Amino acid sequence: MKVTQESLPASQVQLEIEVPADVSGQVYESTLRQVAQQVQIPGFRKGKVPRKILVQKMGQAHLKAKALEELLDKAVKDATKAEKIPVLGNYSFAETFDEMVANYNPGQPLTFTVTADVFPELKVKQYTDLTIQAVEVFYDPAQMDTAIENQRKQMSTLVPVEDRAAEMGDVATVDFTGRYQEPAEGEAPEIPNASATDMQVELADGRMIPGFVEGIVGMKPGETKTVAATFPDAYADATLAGRAAEFEITLYELKIRELPPLDDEFAKNLQYESLDDLREKLTDRYQKEAKTASETNRNEAIIRALAEQMEVEFPVTLIDQESKRLVNQMFNQLKQSGQNINQLMSDELIGHLLREARPQAIESLKQTLAVQEVARVEQITVDSARVDQEVATLMATVKDPKKVNMANIKEVVELDLLQQQVMEWCAAHNTIEWITQEEAAALAAAAKDLAEGTVAVDAETVDAEAVDAEAVDSEVCLTDATSERLMFP
Fold first, then answer.
1. 0.85 exceeded by the pTM?
2. 154 in the Ramachandran plot: left (φ > 0), alpha (ψ -120 to 50) or beta?
3. 194 close to 245: Cβ distance less than 8 angstroms
4. How far, in whole angstroms, is CA 196 from its chain's centroid?
5. Of the four listed, 318, 325, 367, 465, which is most buried by Cβ atoms within 10 Å?
6. Average pLDDT, rounded, for the chain
């Protein structure tokens, strides 16, 4: 078989394949025998139909088409294997199939041209001597104090208080009914799912929508009051976002939290030897978490830097495959969260999601393949014994090992370990410049302004005291469905 190949843009290859006469004839004869074994013609047993009758009944064009399908498939596979061409798919023939059938003469050489996507040629322009900025996470001693106080709060006892009005820090038991604050005449309609009875509300900043908690402060048990409140513009329920409301609140009881003493006995109830032991263990834990978070930020920064240095043309097939993987991953996450994905699935939705996933798919491919390319060039490999050890550790946590695809698990573990080793190699061969979260935010803002064509922001003028979204208090957890709607502004 003669094969001539030509590289095309977008990681495609064009192959001109010449099938020898003997192969052309053999495939046709094999097809005739297969058809003869399958077709039922009156007056003849299967496999005993004379060739002339078979061709007459089935039609020359039909038999040639059937043989050509097999011949093309065999020729392309043999050619790409012999030439060691990493074909991914997306085959396209220069001629229509009908034209190829017309030109196909069994027992005569057959020449055809086909293009296909191939695995792209990878090149990381530079992966050493780079300066890579990464956010460093520092241990904050306040984390330990906050964790201890939260635990004391969980172990606290609610003690009723009397003869005074509600204050911040109290826990109030209330009934309430929410209504829209409309300028129209008549009684405003109730807000769906914005009423509750005997609900405990902690009087603290950010616990409910603005105005709700503040309205309770100053009330006395037995008192009923109408409180004005406003749903935030970014409220989860778009039908309520930004709307003014009023709540008729009845306060029944006030309680205060009586915290356990902060002593060795408190620590022992938490399975620590002493209060000093508790502080030491928490300090060690949060220091390790800070170090791990810094390493994660460093690795992500390295991977982004490698992807930016990547020179590659991804073929459509590879982008489509990665897009499908990302969409499938999203659906699996939804399924695990308990959602009925069958109600969500539709051809229109899936098509939209696949299109939306393409930019992320391209970036994901760049990052993954950049790491693998560095590993290939620098001959960084993973010790098989370590892979087996990690797989064994992972499998020890699996409830039903029989349901696990061991080959997939091993591949994932091997890729993860390889990435870890590449990250350590790159960290040693590049300069890691540690920056703060505020500095990173300033740089990101400046880059965004520059990309939008606006005046770039000088990083030194950015207010370092800007509120970090991750610092928003998210510790409160109420089980009442109504409270959840109000709790999260």
1. no
2. alpha
3. yes
4. 37
5. 318
6. 86
